[in-house]
Amino acid sequence: MSRFKTGSQTDEHICCIQYRSIRLLDSNYPSDVLYIWAENIPVDQHKNAKLAMTPKPMFTLPQINILTMSINKILTEYWQEADLKLVGLIMNFI
Prior knowledge:
Layout: H1 3-6, H2 11-20, H3 40-53, H4 66-78, H5 81-91
């Protein structure tokens, strides 16, 4: 079991983790690895910096809600046209 999970790490463990930490401005800061942050602001900063380095053009794809699409398909297959007007109003709130 992880000592960090149970809060029973030793000073040696803490020193080991601190030794492995790296600052953003360090020359050997890796840019192609998985990062874990405890707060949203550093996540957004890292994401925006990575996006700024991405070759252009960039394309933004629209969000697709699979659940809503499935509901629409089921409703249009089994409901009558008069009922679909009401369903359309309801689906605007999902």
